[in-house]
Amino acid sequence: MSQPIINHYVGGAEFVGESDRLADVFDPALGVATKSVRLATTGDLVAAVAVAKTAFETWSTMSLTKRVAIVFKFRELLEAKKGELAAIITEEHGKVLSDALGEITRGQEVVEFACGLPHLLKGEFSLNASTDVDVYSLKQALGVVGIISPFNFPAMVPMWFFPVAIAAGNTVILKPSEKDPSAAIWMAHLWKEAGLPDGVFNVVHGDKVSVDALLEHPDVESISFVGSTPIAQYVYETGAKHGKRVQALGGAKNHMLVLPDADLDLVADSAVNAGFGSAGERCMAISVVVAVDPIGDDLVAAVKDKMSAIKVGDGRRSCDMGPLVTEVHRDKVASYIDIAEKDGATIVTDGRDVKADGEAAGFWLGPTLIDHVPTSSKVYQEEIFGPVLSVVRVKSYEEGVALINSGAFGNGTAIFTNDGGAARKFVTDIQVGMVGVNVPIPVPMAYFSFGGWKHSLFGDSRAHGEEGFRFFTRQKVVTSRWLDPSHGGLNLGFPQN
Ligand code: NAD
Questions:
Q1: Ligand 1, residues at Cβ distance < 6 Å
Q2: Catalytic positions, please?
Q3: Is the Cβ–Cβ distance between 25 and 34 less than 8 Å?
């Protein structure tokens, strides 16, 4: 029997397009392909942009009151039906159901933030800036905007962008990851149910072909990308070359600095939760614990002890950690454990021989703890994006900060200490975009903005918050005078009073 095919969604309906290229979509806990996704041609993408461009004419001019009612309705429907979406995420990504629900909740917070659009789109007004001259600013939508998202948060990452883009009056082409494409389609149907006009939110599936078509299309005004650093850099450079605004969020290697005075129990819980939640497939996962002497041995023992309670298995059962997204990715992550052994690190807990509560063919890899990782090793230097937690020992706070600051990435980091002065110094010294103090995954709330530094973000705009509304609008300043009888004569200079 042939697998069901996941098609595009354009103009408020399923869209097959002209492509006959398909990719497998797996159920990672079963280890089998259960569906196929259609990969768009350039022509398919061009057709979708034309639909979105037409929809922009009416959506961008619809009153704020009507727009906010639709965004609010989407929020209500999401709240009521999020269990359905969580099941879809678990089926294609593999994360456990509670974690899938968690990502939806974080995305929903951006929808709630976007409901404040009438306030966030307000301009400014200066009465009588010069005699009888008023000056005001206004924010207008860009047009058709492109969003390209990664596999690891198939609902939350698109929701970092599309609620704000739509609220601001834009129309959207979402190109989700081809590894777990169904969440995007489910959200498209939800928008329709919420009353969003057809063509405002469109989903085009695909790979490099559709990404390149988005980057090069003259009617696509902006690109919001999230994914690995090499692709983020490519998207940023190519999009900018084609005259678009681009925000491209890349990879990460997040460190947790543990000072000797930290609460060891809190540290161990935090390291385990932040290292192995979602099988380490989070851009804000902690992947390196930096232990300041002499806490290292006690810390490793405490983390090892907590890890022994993690139950790995099918996310639909009562487990803590699911499989990895694909077999290829699982094998790549496991290969770093081999490298660690060769590079002289100590494998404290080895996930390669995990016994999972699920089908034997599932893409399993258990939580892995590696101590004494040399900073020259690829295990330390590269993003692994799986359930592998490294421990690096340093002699002092200064050495720890210098190590973290020497890295290529700057997404998230955290310090664990009971010393307020040290924590305060860390917050200012560290060259990372999102910082936690005794909080391992410092993801900002929706009304702040999300984004890292260095190779974790290309472009100058982060996701959501006021910065999101700025990214998805153009500002205009109007200088206006209504003539009264006293206006007088020629004056070639600037107004002086
Ligand atoms: P990825 O870079 O492989 O894919 C991201 C998107 O780019 C997908 O839609 C994919 O189809 C597309 N793509 C893949 N190859 C391409 C190519 N050659 N040309 C053009 N487009 C291409 O990333 P992924 O494996 O899906 O996601 C994991 C990565 O995303 C990790 O590096 C993780 O750190 C990062 N991530 C970062 C953040 C952040 O906020 N900084 C958040 C989530 C994930």
A1: 148-153, 157, 175, 177-178, 207-208, 211, 226-228, 231, 249-252, 283, 383, 385, 411, 452, 456
A2: 283
A3: yes
Domains of the chain, residue spans: 5-250+456-478, 254-437
- CATH number for 5-250+456-478 (one of 3.40.720.10, 3.60.150.10, 3.40.605.10, 3.40.50.2300): it is 3.40.605.10
Q: Quick: pLDDT tens for 23-48.
A: 999 999 999 999 999 999 999 999 99
In CATH, the number for domain 254-437 is 3.40.309.10
Which residue among 42, 153, 175, 207 is best mutated to probe the pocket of ligand 1, counting the most ligand atoms within 8 A of its Cβ?
207
Nearest CA to ligand 1 atom 31: 228
Q: Which positions ≥6 away from 189 have C-beta within 8 Å? A: 9
Say if residue 497's pLDDT is above 90.
no
Confidence band for 430, pLDDT divided at 50, 70 and 90: very high
Q: How far is the CA of 250 from the centre of ligand 1 (A)?
A: 7
What is the torsion angle, in degrees rounded to the nearest 10, for the CA atoms of residue 123, residue 124, residue 129 and residue 132?
A: 60
- Ligand 1 pocket test: pick from 39, 106, 152 the residue with the most ligand atoms within 8 Å of its Cβ: 152
Strands 457-458, 125-130: pairing kind: unpaired
Q: Which of 169, 219, 184 is nearest to 46 (CA)?
A: 219
Cα–Cα distance measured from residue 215 to residue 234, given in angstroms and rounded to the nearest whole number: 10
∠ CA 315-316-318, nearest 5°, is 80
Strand runs (DSSP E) across 117-265, as ranges?
125-130, 133-141, 144-148, 171-175, 201-203, 220-226, 245-249, 254-258
Cβ-contact 410, 455 below 8 angstroms: yes
Closest CA to 214 of 188, 184, 246: 246
CB atoms within 10 A of CB 143: 19
Distance 208 CA to ligand 1 centre (A): 11
User: According to the model, what pLDDT value does residue 148 have?
Assistant: 99
130 has which bridge partners? Answer: 133
- Give the strand pairing for 457-458 and 245-249: antiparallel
Rama region for 372: left / alpha / beta (φ>0; ψ in -120 to 50; rest): left
- Among candidates 478, 488, 471, 56, which has minimal Cα distance to 225? 471
Distance 149 CA to ligand 1 centre (A): 7
Coil, strand or helix: which one is 409?
strand
- The yes-or-no answer to whether 5-250+456-478 and 254-437 have a common fold is no
How many Å lie between the centroid of ligand 1 and the Cα of residue 230?
9
pTM exceeds 0.85: yes
Ligand 1 atom index nearest CA of 463: 40
